[in-house]
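ESCALATION

Customer reports they have been waiting on this structure for their group meeting. Please prioritize. Original submission:
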Amino acid sequence: MKRTVFILFLGWLFALTGCTGDDREYIERKLNLSFNVPAGLNNIESHYFRIDDVYLFLDETLEINKLDTSSIDEISGGSARLFSRLGGVDFSDIERISIFAVSQTDKNNRKEMFYLEEIPLRNLDELKLLNGLADFSEFIEDNRLDIEVRIQFRRFSTLSMQLDLDFSYLIFKK
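Update from on-call: job pushed to the front of the queue and completed.
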């Protein structure tokens, strides 16, 4: 009996003191990008697709919310999904995908915004990516950001793909 009471007490204690969500106030901004993936890419290498000078609408978002850049604590990825408006894309050919924020001054300096590993082998018409949790506010210059998509295929890609990336970023307030 004492053991049961002790286990219940521990469970109750863990429930009260367990991990809690991030209670900071934030603003979410949604964007869409399109890029092409050509046919005939191999499964040995990772393939990179750079989208330069993505306009973030950061100044406009701050103005609407009556904030300025001094009130920003960090900017990180929110949610993301990869899909094709044209259809006919089988995402099971992709093994791994990562989306990076890239510094405009040093192209080797990057932080992962979104990723997805171990993509299921069944036919998928979209991929919902996981958040990378990195603060990429230091990479934003003149309201713009360079983005790089890294794709590792399971097998040779047979079709060219016109892909769309719907994503959001979160502006955390101080």
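Sent to customer with the following note: The chain has a mean pLDDT of 87.
Escalation resolved.
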